[in-house]
Target: Hemerythrin-like metal-binding domain protein
Amino acid sequence: MEIALSPFLPEALLVGFPEIDAQHEEVFTRIESLKAGCFGNTYVDIAEFQALLDSFTLHFATEERIAEDAGIDFAAHAKIHRDTLDLLRKALGDVIKGERDAHAFLRYAEYWFERHIREDDKRFVATLQESRHFRLPRSRRPVSNRLFSARA
Model:
């Protein structure tokens, strides 16, 4: 499975599992799109912000399915997912009510997700690689001409 990734997912955040890397890329792309759309604007497209939360939800469910298929204890990681979704939903509610800045919400979501990938998702994929009952799909990051430099 070859995935064409845009420049929003830095090499350092690739975990080597194509489905997970593609979902990470989708989340970062949505965040960047929302940041660009909100810049200099007071209008917040709530449907697009909800789509971001839906991307997180799908991604978390995917990881949980993969862990279950591999027979890996994922309870602690799944709790992080649930707690984060609760926090992001509350924060988005604050944005909708005008109590929180949309850019602050997006900066937090982006920072949290980068840290989560580095500290939790990479460890999860390493555990998958060690599992005798699970075989990781091959992952190759295609070489592309990038118009933007990736964040580090």
The CA atoms of residues 130 and 143 lie 28 Å apart. Confidence is low (pLDDT under 50) at residues 1-5, 139-152.
